[in-house]
Amino acid sequence: DELARQELASPIRRVLLAAAAAIMAAFMVLFLGLHLTTREPEIAARPSHMLLLALLVTGTAAVAAYLRLNGFSPYLTPTPLTAMLATILFSPQVGVVLAVVLALYVGSVFGDLYVGMVCLLAATVAVHSVRRVRHRNQFYRAILLVPLSYAALIAASDLVRFVPVGREMLGDITPAVFTAVMAAILTIGLLPIFESLFHITTDITLLELSDLNRPLLRELAIRAPGTYTHSLIMANLSESAAEAIGANPLHAR
């Protein structure tokens, strides 16, 4: 451990590690781009969406590289945050792909297969916890599920590696739980910013737009009550039809 710290303290060694991390991050973005062009052409066709995904991936990768160079816990890497943002802004499939790519990167940067596995599984739980979020208070499920999953996964991986139960295991679990809780909180705060900057409409925004107390709908009810009633009936019929064929009910409504 002391030898590793001395090597990391060397300026040349730090530059080489940073360059290696940048190369891996570049290949991650390339891999993600190939996946999107073949599996998610709607996203790949919009430069703003591709830019957002590139920022999410490279930002998370940069944090992981910084943590590695400065000797911090790998579980402070915001992989769950990135996975949750990608899930809500795009789709659960994109969130899972990002989770896989980033977990592989984190595991390679820290040279620990178990770290990568824990990050992957925790990020997958994060994707599952927000895949059908429509109200902001539903993020409480993520605040509960992701920290518990992190704690269980880290405890299991440490036991497999014969890490003694005690302070060392707690030292791995504490930063992971902190990261998981902050991921859900930051997702709530960052979503409106990303939606506005990159012109993305999520289900949360669509549900807010369908609020009958919004000024436009209230004015419609006063000025044209017949049109207002007809619009509500058509919205309900469209929503039911979309649910029946597996389409997005909120988009139809």
Characterize the structure shown.
- The structure is a single chain.
- Helices cover 82% and strands 0% of the residues.
- It has 253 residues and is an all-alpha fold.
- It is elongated.
> What gap, in angstroms, lies between the N and C termini?
59 Å
Helical run tally? 13
Radius of gyration: 22 Å
Percent strand: under 5%
Mean pLDDT: 87
Low-confidence stretches: none
Question: In a nutshell, what does this entry contain?
Answer:
The chain is mainly α and 253 residues long.
SSE arrangement:
Layout: H1 2-9, H2 11-39, H3 41-44, H4 47-69, H5 79-89, H6 92-110, H7 113-130, H8 139-160, H9 167-198, H10 203-209, H11 215-223, H12 225-245, H13 249-252
Helix pairs in contact: 2-4, 2-6, 4-6, 5-6, 5-7, 5-9, 6-7, 7-8, 8-9, 11-12
Structural descriptors:
253 residues, mainly alpha, 82% helix, elongated
